[in-house]
Structure formats: C-alpha cells, structure tokens
Write a structure and sequence with these properties.
- This is ABC transporter permease.
- This protein is of the alpha/beta class and 376 residues long.
- The chain has a five-stranded mixed sheet with strand order 2-1-3-4-5, with helices on both faces.
- The chain is elongated, with a radius of gyration of 30 Å.
- It has two domains: 230 residues, no CATH class; 93 residues, 3-Layer(aba) Sandwich (D-Maltodextrin-Binding Protein, domain 2), CATH 3.40.190.
- It contains 15 helices and five strands.
- β3 and β4 form a beta hairpin.
C-alpha cells in the first residue's frame, strides 16, 4: 500500500506540473515536426555556377542540368567578386580550349554538384559532337557515291574534337573537404552558446532557490548592479571557455581559418555574452534545475536548425523570419564568413551589431525582471 501511496503522490505532482507534462508530450512532437520540415525542404540544393568565355554548347548543357543555376560574366574579375560575395559557388573559365574551375567549397555538396554537372556537360557535348561528325560524314559519303558509283571513299572528319583539360582550385579546403568543414564554424559557436546558457541559468537559479538572491535584493544594491555583476563574473568564465573551444578547434582539430582568428574570438565572445544574458532571463521562469533543463528543446534546439547549418535560402519565408529572431543565425553567418571566406571586420559588422543589440535588450529585460523578486 505504501508503494501505491508514493506512486499516487508522485503522479499527482506530475499532473499538477503542467510544464513537465508539456515537455514530455508536446516538446518532442514540436522538435520532430521541425526536423521533418527542415530536412525535407533541403533535398534539392542548387549550385550557382558562373561562366566566363565558356562555349555556347557547354553553357547550354550546364543550363539544362537540374539544380544548376548558370550566370554569365564578362570577366574573371567580376566572377571572382561574385564568388567572394557568396553570389555564386563555382566559376568555370574557358581559355584556349581548357577549363579553369574555381570552387568556393564552402558547401562540399554544392561543389560536388557543380563537378558532376560539368563532367556531364562535357560528356554530352562530346556525344553531340561525335553525332554531328557522323552525320556530316554520312552526307559527304552519300554525295560522293551518287557522283561516282562504285567508288570507295576514304574520309576523315574535317575537325577532330580534343578533350579539354580541367584545372581545379579551391578557395577553402581541397577536394577532400567534407560537409563537416561547413558546419564546424557553426558548431563552434553553438557549443559556446549552449554551455554558457546552461551554466549561467543554473547559477542564478541556485542563488534564487537558496535565498541568496532574496537577501541581496533586501539590501540597497540596485538591480542593475546585480545583473551586471553576474554578467561580469560569468562573462570572464564564458570568455575563457570560448578561448579554449576556439583554440582546440583550430590547432587540435586542424580547422582551416581563411580570415582573422581574432575576429573568430570576437564573435564567439559576444555570442557567449548573449547566451549569458539569455540564460539569466530563462532562469527567472524556472523553479528548479529540472525546469531549467526543460528550456533546452525549446530554446537551444531551434538555434541549431536556424543557424545556417542547413541552408535557409531553400526554406519558406516564414522560416527565415523565425531565424531572424535567433542570435545563432547571425553568429553562424559571421563565423562561416570569417572561417571559410576570409571576410574582414567591416563585412561581419552587421551581424555583430545585431548580436550586441540582443545583448542590450536581454540585459535590460533581466534588470526589469528582477523587480518581481524584490520584496522591499
């Protein structure tokens, strides 16, 4: 009977805890739905190819290839600028019958798609050229036979197609670069965000449940002093953690960084401070460590899906609007551009300003939110 009494008490507590019930029954469905939508809309990735002085037959063959967008450029300088600005993924430049291919290689999938499309276009052109030669020879043979019955013709094609040589280079990585290279800059930022969010949220929650925060609020100390004090203390810890993650990623995992390592550190440190403010805010809605953990599938998981790890341009417009209100989207864009495209400070400044705006807004909300715990 005692066993059933304990089971009854625990069951009643669970039934009264609506947040736990929602976590168990609703959150998994939301995450699965989100995953199903995100991964199902990205099975038709398109590679953007820039052509410079490419022959019309080859260009036409590329244009008829599925999931390949072809744009013609007048010069290699203009095409290189488009590649640097992430407007194209691959440049194909034809010179003296040879092909010079430059791949941004930010997304290994798009690079492989462009490679396959080029090989397919070359093969198709070879077959078409051979058919034209056969048709031309047949017509000449028929003409000679009509003019000289019984004569044996020994004809060779007037022109003989020569296979084009392909010279390939990569802006980032090499031919062995995998999909992991694309997501590693984003994962670097994500782990910074995740652990700082969790640790800061748990810390303030412990201060609240132990009564330390109540005693502190009973003093003349201002709410802004408390919030900023916590952010400075845990901010130092977050910066040290960020340094460790970045150094390990670059020097131990051997991740190539085209841009400035200082910019990588700067973006991750600002992101860590945003995560710190976010964690403090979420802790005000939790009554226990378990409830703090409940925010992970609702706050952390969407950050992964909308961080740029999966291309957002293939998703619906409303999904892109959701991504626009999540800090990891801007951090992911900035880190990817620094690591894989080598951009400078001015080019990541818009993303940094948005992250700083997140930090300011969340800090102000935290200061105002402490009012509910001040009893005097």
């Amino acid at each position: 009977m005692r066993i059933f009494a304990i089971a009854r008490r625990v069951t009643l507590e669970l039934v009264r805890d609506k947040r736990t019930l929602a976590l168990m029954f609703i959150a998994p469905l939301l995450v699965l739905t989100l995953m199903n939508y995100v991964f199902s809309v990205n099975d038709s990735t398109t590679a953007r190819v820039a052509t410079v002085n490419v022959s019309q037959p080859l260009k036409k063959s590329l244009q008829t290839t599925k999931h390949i967008d072809v744009e013609k450029f007048a010069s290699t300088k203009a095409a290189d600028k488009a590649l640097h600005d992430d407007k194209v993924d691959t440049i194909i430049h034809e010179k003296n019958g040879d092909l010079y291919v430059t791949n941004a290689n930010v997304d290994a999938g798009k690079t492989n798609l462009a490679k396959a499309a080029l090989q397919g276009a070359i093969s198709k052109n070879g077959v078409d050229t051979l058919k034209e030669h056969i048709t031309d020879l047949s017509a000449k043979l028929a003409t000679l036979t009509a003019q000289m019955p019984g004569a044996k013709a020994n004809l060779a094609p007037a022109t003989q197609a020569q296979a084009s040589k392909i010279y390939t280079k990569y802006v980032y990585g090499d031919a062995n670069t995998t999909f992991f290279a694309k997501i590693i800059p984003i994962l670097m930022g994500f782990f910074v965000f995740f652990f700082v969010f969790l640790i800061s949220g748990m810390a303030l929650l412990r201060e609240r449940t132990s009564g330390t925060l109540d005693r502190l609020l009973a003093t003349p100390v201002r709410r802004a002093d408390i919030v900023l004090g916590y952010m400075i203390a845990y901010g130092i810890l977050a910066i040290l953690q960020t340094l460790l993650i970045v150094i390990y990623t670059v020097w131990i995992l051997k991740v190539e960084v085209l841009g400035s390592l200082g910019l990588v550190l700067l973006v991750n440190i600002v992101l860590a401070l945003v995560a710190l403010a976010f964690g403090i805010l979420m802790s005000t809605f939790a009554r226990s460590e378990f409830q703090m953990m409940q925010f992970i599938p609702l706050i952390i998981v969407p950050q992964v899906f909308f961080s740029g790890m999966i291309p957002l341009d293939t998703m619906a417009s409303w999904v892109q609007w959701v991504a626009a209100i999540l800090p990891m989207k801007y951090a992911g864009d900035a880190l990817t551009n620094i690591v894989m495209r080598g951009v400078n400070f001015g080019q990541i400044l818009p993303d940094l300003l948005v992250l700083i705006l997140f930090l300011i807004i969340l800090t102000l909300i935290n200061i105002v939110g402490l009012r509910r715990y001040r009893k005097v």
